[in-house]
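Lab notebook, bench 4. The sequencing result for the construct came back, and we need a structural model before the next group meeting so we can plan mutations. Quick request posted to the team channel:

Model the 3D structure of this chain.
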Amino acid sequence: MLVIEGTRMSDGISFGAIYFLKNKPATIEHKKISDIEKELVRFEAAHETACLQLEDLYKETKETLGEENASIFDIHKLMLKDIDYIESITNIIKNQAANAEYAIAVTAKNFSEIFSCMDDDYMKERAIDVKDISERIQKALNPEHYKPIEINAPSIIIADDITPGEIVGFEKSMILGIATVKGGATSHTAILARSQAIPAAFGMQGIGEELDGKFAVLDGFSGKLYIDPDEATKKEMKARVDENCKKRELLSQLKGLPTITADGRKINLYANINHISDIDEAVNNDAEGIGLFRSEFLYLDRKSAPSEEEQFIAYKKAAERMGGKKTIIRTLDIGADKQVDYFNLPNEENPAMGLRAIRICLTKPEIFKTQLRALYRASAFGNIAVMIPMIISVQEVEEVLRIVKEVKSDLRSEKIPFDEKTEFGIMVETPAAVMISETLAKMVDFFSIGTNDLTQYTLAADRQNSSISSFYDAKHPAVLKMIELTVKSARDAGIWVGICGEIAADLELTETFLKLGVDELSVSPRMILPIREKVMLF
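Done. Here's the predicted structure in token form:
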């Protein structure tokens, strides 16, 4: 038996024969062309074909998997029409008298490398999206060179990577599981795998064509692929499948039930999401609201800040999709591990301690006001709450409230509707905010404790530095004491308090948080029902 270890991408266990997906790109030759204008027309025609294909793919995916999953192909279309991407291809054709295939291949390689080198995981995983759109144009240029993938029997598909276009193009009944070398938990392929309940894992070093046809078991929970498993492993995995089925059945009985402790105390159980496309997963897992909507996805992967209208449409869509349930949207948290070139931020030796989040917003008030206008406009279409990250002082909150007051006044004078009762809160994720939380609690409607940053700042342990990961302990007594102090300040001031960091999903700490008096827990969607079960037993 051979065991290949990777990283979990989509939960589940599958048994079956392996199908090796030969998706290596065809060798692209650099050819000198004599008619540049003709080659540009050839590229433009293929580009238009690719755009039309994405429109069709969007419609098909919307019908089968819903609008949120289909939005992936809207994003692909935006990337396909990106001016820098198109100019790179056309410039190579013009300046090097190169064939379109070569120009596309070089551009795809360059753009993919740029994304792959970024610190932010979401941005890293856009590299596969560049590959997807580029291959789509290549196929439109030379359709005869690309044979359709035909999977004739249900299989565990292994590959270097699998694009969103490929996964949607497969017959669902033929995909038992997916194992890839490349990929990531927030990739569009991962989102599609989870939405279809397909066990999947990435980071599978050592998988290749020699495994084609072999019997295997894929454990999406642990990210392990068992090749030619022995009888003991097969028996263990089958037992786990039965156990998981029973557990899912029991947890499904909790859907639709309020999250109430045994003594009758209501706990708000919300979901953390990175993107609008994650809302379906939150709804499907019965989240009672969105506790942390990271708005920076609108600012990443572009050359300029999003307009007010663009943001308004996104926030409105999120609020409407949640159907009146609370949707807490965190204002821009750029900086540290999430950088955008158009902000022209200085290079910093320690960006986690530098210009980020609310510090950027207050130094770029027009960008901040634009986002606040969009947020408050969207509040007329659902239960939106506004949350400010990285607060360290009373003065910061006062300045934010002044800007909010100005935005509301402008909207009133323009007769633009918004919800006057929109809740306003702050994230407590610095020791400074904890120590003055008694004062801050009197200025806001709620606290949300961001334990990821609170842990790194309390313990002086950079959470991005893998070499000191053993020193980063979210359960450290000092961190738990910080949470306790924050909850007490909120209770004394009569406001509600939640936790939206990673440890909110730690089942071993659920009882501790409930005893402290936490009102809300915001976790990844897949942890909603397990946490509900734990709360209802308390």
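Residues 208 and 262 are 52 Å apart (CA to CA).
Will bring this to the meeting.
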